[in-house]
Design goal:
By secondary structure, this protein is mostly helical. It has helices at residues 25-32, 36-46, 60-67, 90-100, 123-142, 147-150, 158-164, 173-189, 198-220, 225-254, 305-323, 339-351, 353-360, 369-388. Helix 8 packs across helix 12 (339-351). The longest helix is centred in the middle third of the chain and has 30 residues, at 225-254.
Length: 389
């Protein structure tokens, strides 16, 4: 965090002779700012003094000065020191910078686990948070701390290089969107999406094995089948409703049209029962409205348009198949749509079940008319295109 690398330290942890210039008074002021108390505490920390004579917390005025938003101006904070600001995902950006300097990390697993309950409690806030994380991850890919730069660095391991490429996670939203629409498209055109016969059995077996394995992971850690289902549903919703907009944000930034803003996600810590070890958290009764704690909330945000659109398209495809309104054709090289495509549409609807409930709910738990109108228009265009061309 202070901008040093393992090369600047001796075997006993002291600063090497080549790094003593780091403690130069002018250099320290340039790096860490004009607070003498802060500089003194940093020097003592770098010299390995475990019990400094003075503590920064003893100086209220100094703490207020350092905590001011203008303190870091004309210093190296945010550039080479502390949390790096080149991305709205500053924690990821900082960790890559630390690893590129040669430091290694360790996995800390406290008992009880840290940060339980520190997540957004409603759907919209979770989607906004994931949008920011996805955008920040792609920002990291294009700035000076990029993991692609680490590919050519000897100080970062090959497995770390591969692990950091998960910053491409928001690109997953594009295939997720296509996979959610393909079964409906094939039903509307009356064409086959999945292979027939033994090949279909192999495909179903692989999917079933994956589902059973993830379900076993959840139950093995003490969670319920419902938790597993909610997790699968939530990741589909976050990918299509959150990460999809991350691509929009980063494209506008790369084209120089607009910058990415830091949007703070509201977080609430629910009342919880004491936990032991790593057992899943148990909620207490939160009062008369406790039955609404797990309900998905909607508003007029554009984030809910893709999910509503996906729901309407799949419902329209199933309805058209039920009444026999699919596109008719003299021949289909790949065969006609059948049970597999219908089951895939039903599966998509189950994964986007909060949006189906939102069609009939009222208030903040129902999809607003403006969002529903936009999604319905897009769904109508999709259906006309699928049936007419």
């Amino acid at each position: 965090m202070y901008g040093l690398s393992p090369d600047n330290l001796e075997n006993n942890g002291d600063l090497s002779s080549s790094a003593t210039k780091f403690l130069d008074e002018d250099s320290l002021a340039r790096k860490f700012g004009s607070s003498k108390e802060l500089v003194i505490s940093i020097v003592e920390a770098l010299q390995g003094k475990s019990n400094p004579k003075t503590s920064l917390t003893d100086f209220i005025e100094a703490a207020q000065m350092v905590g001011h938003c203008h303190y870091e101006h004309q210093t190296n904070w945010g550039k080479t020191l502390g949390c790096l600001y080149d991305s709205v995902a500053e924690d990821m950006n900082t960790s890559i910078g630390i690893h590129l300097r040669g430091w290694s990390s360790s996995y800390i697993c406290p008992d009880p686990p840290a940060f339980l309950g520190s997540t957004p409690s409603v759907g919209f806030e979770a989607i906004v948070q994931q949008r920011r994380w996805g955008t920040g991850a792609i920002e990291v890919l294009f700035n000076k701390q990029s993991p692609l730069r680490g590919m050519f660095s000897s100080k970062i391991r090959f497995r770390q290089r591969l692990a950091y490429l998960w910053v491409l996670m928001c690109l997953r939203s594009i295939p997720e969107l296509f996979y959610c629409l393909l079964p409906a498209y094939c039903l509307l055109r009356n064409t086959a999406l999945y292979p027939k016969g033994p090949c279909l059995a192999i495909t179903v077996t692989i999917v079933a094995m994956h589902c059973l394995y993830t379900l076993w992971q959840f139950t093995n850690n003490g969670f319920s089948v419902r938790s597993w289902y909610v997790s699968q549903s939530l990741w589909r919703i976050l990918a299509t409703c959150g990460w999809l907009f991350s691509i929009h944000d980063i494209l506008l930034k790369l084209l120089g049209i607009s910058n990415v803003g830091f949007v703070v996600a509201k977080k609430t810590t629910p009342k919880t029962m004491p936990i032991s070890g790593y057992e899943p958290i148990q909620r207490q009764d939160d009062g008369p409205n406790s039955c609404y704690v797990h309900k998905f909330e909607f508003d007029n945000s554009c984030h809910f348009v893709p999910g509503t659109f996906i729901m309407l398209v799949n419902m329209a495809a199933l309805a058209s198949n039920f009444v026999g309104l699919q596109r008719s054709s003299c021949h289909h090289e790949g065969g006609r749509s059948g049970l597999a495509e219908n089951c895939a549409c039903i599966l998509v609807i189950l994964l986007f079940l909060p949006f189906l409930k939102g069609l009939f709910a009222k208030g903040k738990y129902g999809i607003p008319l403006s969002t529903l109108s936009k999604a319905a228009l897009l769904a109508m265009i999709f259906v006309v295109f699928a049936v007419g061309y």
